[in-house]
């Protein structure tokens, strides 16, 4: 059984004090982790403070990115080894904004994925679909290529723990989510790609998320689809109330 994962990605938002206040505000208002797992990926500056405020709570504190080397002369980068020592469970790899603004290539993302696994954490691998490729009818190839590239050299044992997020770039921050049909199609194609690379059993066990303008008023419809195992939300994860609603999507109407 795939336990749903409702994850937030704060990006470059909030202050340390605001991050601490958020963690405190959601305590006691999120589902039990054996029903719905919840996580917030936050800037590295906030992680220690959030962890300290989150002791014995169900919310998982995750990282937005890391570097692919454990340590060295890499000024300003985030060590996956250090994240592991902080007991960070998840690290986002390959977000479309990292690809676009910081020129992260498929090779860089693959190296980050391997570094996350090497340090005992789980990557949330994002794959993108641009509107141009959707219009030109090439979306299947785009999704397959990014997932395949991210998992190059990754063993089946590690791949079985991966989380993949389908994030069409035309929906991220636009206020316009993919329809539940579009989200289901993208997540299904990702699952089929995993089956092609590894096995049907592995693919059926991996959680595939949808991300892109997810809100409390559309999450129930997205989560009703068979291949959508959760969401990676941006803006709607910043406010305590809306994140609590996302996490408790089962109480919302379709």
Tag the structure with descriptive keywords.
254 residues, alpha/beta, 4-stranded parallel sheet, 12 helices, 16% strand
Please outline the major beta sheet.
Answer: 4 strands, parallel
User: What helical percentage do the residues reach?
Assistant: 25-40%
Give the structural class: alpha/beta
Radius of gyration: 17 Å
Kindly, what is the distance between the CA atoms of the first and last residues, rounded to a whole number of angstroms? 22 Å
Query: Largest sheet, order of strands side by side?
Result: 3-2-1-8
**% residues in beta strands:** 15-25%
Helix-strand string: EHEHEHEHHEHHHEHHEHEH
SS summary, helix count: 12
Q: Based on CA inertia axes, which overall geometry fits?
A: globular
Contiguous runs where pLDDT drops below 50 for at least 5 residues? none
**What's the total number of strands?**
8
- Mean pLDDT value: 92
Structural notes for this entry:
It is a single chain. It contains twelve helices and eight strands. Helix 1 (16-26) packs across helix 12 and helix 7 (139-150) packs across helix 9 (180-197). The chain starts with a strand and ends in a 7-residue tail after the last helix. The protein is α/β, with parallel strands linked by helices. The longest helix is centred in the C-terminal third of the chain and has 18 residues, at 180-197. The chain has a four-stranded parallel sheet with strand order 3-2-1-8. It has a four-stranded parallel sheet with strand order 4-5-6-7. 40% of the residues lie in helices and 16% in strands.
């Amino acid at each position: 059984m795939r336990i749903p994962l409702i994850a937030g990605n704060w990006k470059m938002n909030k202050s340390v004090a605001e991050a601490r206040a958020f963690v405190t505000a959601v305590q006691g208002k999120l589902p039990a982790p054996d029903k719905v797992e919840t996580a917030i990926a936050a800037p590295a500056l906030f992680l220690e403070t959030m962890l300290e405020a989150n002791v014995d709570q169900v919310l998982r504190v995750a990282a937005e990115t890391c570097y692919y080397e454990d340590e060295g002369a890499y000024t300003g980068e985030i060590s996956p080894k250090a994240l592991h020592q902080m007991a960070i469970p998840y690290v986002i790899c390959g977000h479309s904004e990292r690809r676009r603004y910081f020129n992260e290539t498929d090779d860089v993302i693959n190296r980050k994925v391997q570094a996350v696994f090497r340090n005992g954490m789980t990557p949330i691998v994002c794959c993108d679909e641009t509107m141009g490729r959707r219009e030109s009818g090439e979306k299947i190839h785009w999704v397959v290529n990014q997932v395949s590239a991210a998992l190059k050299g990754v063993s089946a044992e590690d791949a079985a723990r991966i989380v993949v997020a389908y994030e069409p770039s035309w929906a991220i921050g636009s206020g316009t989510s993919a329809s539940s049909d579009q989200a289901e199609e993208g997540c299904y194609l990702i699952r089929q790609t995993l089956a092609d690379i590894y096995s049907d059993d592995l693919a059926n066990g991996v959680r595939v998320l949808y991300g892109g303008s997810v809100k409390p008023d559309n999450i129930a419809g997205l989560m009703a689809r068979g291949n959508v195992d959760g969401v990676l939300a941006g803006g709607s994860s910043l406010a305590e109330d809306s994140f609590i609603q996302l996490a408790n999507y089962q109480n919302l109407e379709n």
